[in-house]
Write a structure and sequence with these properties.
Length: 356
Amino acid sequence: MTALPPGSTIGILGGGQLGRMLAMAAAQLGYRCHIYAPDKESVAAEVAAEFTCAEDHDITALRQFAGSCDVLTFEFENLPVAPLAEIDGLAPLYPPVKALDIAQNRIAEKEFARVHGGTTAAFAEVTDLESLEQAIEKIGTPAILKTIRMGYDGKGQARIKPGDSLAPHWETVGHQPSVAEGFVTFSHEFSVILVRGQDGSICYWDTPHNIHEDGILAQSLVPAPAEIVEQQEKARALASKMAHAMGYVGVLTCEFFATADGPVFNEMAPRVHNSGHWTIEGAVTSQFENHIRALTGLPLGDPGLAADHVAMDNLIGGTADQWQALLADPANHLHLYGKGESRPGRKMGHVTKLFF
Ligand code: AMP
C-alpha cells in the first residue's frame, strides 16, 4: 500500500465543524484540503486550502472537484448518494458509498445490524396513519416515531405515550416515511468508535459514555462506567463485523443503549462523530487524524487514552457565549467552530478537560 505523500489534496464533501476538524488534522500531516459544500458560509472552508461552493447535485462541479483531489471523503451523512456515482473513479472515495446508503435509512441500518448478529429495538415501517396504528399495535407504547431519512439530533422524531392519539404524531414527522421503534429501557448510552485502515486492520478508541439532552449529545465521559465496559466487547464485535462487511475505510461510529439484556444497536454514523471529539486531546491519536491516516494509507496512530479521565461537553446554542468564563479554567481545551450566530440546539463548539 502506497501512502499519499504530504502535499496531496484531500477532498471533503460537507462544510461543517466535522470537516473543519478533519481539515485541521490533515494540515498537521502536511495535506491540503478542498471543501465541497452548498452553503457559502462554511466553517470547514475557512481552514482549508480550497473551496468549491456548489450544490450536491451539480454533476459538473462535482466532477471538477473530484478530478482535482487525490482522495475523497465526506463529513455529512445526508449527502445525496446518486450524484456520487458520477465521480466514481475520479479519485478514491472513503468510506464506501454503501456505508452512506445504509446509514441514511434507519430501517436499512437496523436490518444490517441484525444480519450481523446485533440486537435493535423492535421496529415497524410506517407509511401512513393506518400503518402507524398497526405498528403501535405490534410494538406497543411508549414508542418513538422517527423519519426513515434525514433525521439527526432528535429532529424528525415524535415520542408516543400510552393512550396518545396518533394523528398528531404523524403530523410531527411531516407525514414522511417513518419507523416506529419500541422504547428501549436503558441504563446508559455509549458509542463504539473505530477506525479501519485500507489493509482491513481495525482499532478502537475507549468507549465513551454519552449523555443526551433533548435528543442531542450533551456530554461524553471516558472511561465509561462498568455497566458499559462489560457490554463493550459485544458492541465492538458487531461494529467490526459491519465495518468488514462494508469494506469500510475510515472512522465508523455505532451508537448503543446499554440494557439489562446487553447492548442494543441504535444507529451508525459513517464518519467522525461528536462522541469522539474528546479524542483530540484525550487520546494519543484523535479520530480526525486517524480518519485522515486511513484515507491516505498512512499507518494508523495509537487510539489509547492520554489521561485517566476525559470529559467533553458540547457547547450548544448560547452556552458558547461563555467562552471567556470557560477559558478562566486553564485546564479547559476550548473548541469553537466559528459559526456566527448561536441558535437553540445549534452545536457551536465543545470543551474538553483531562483528569490525571
Ligand atoms: P437518535 O436520533 O436515534 O440518535 O435518537 C436521539 C436520542 O433519543 C437517543 O440518543 C436516545 O437518547 C433517544 N432514543 C432514540 N431512540 C430511542 C429508543 N428506541 N428508545 C429509547 N430512547 C431512544
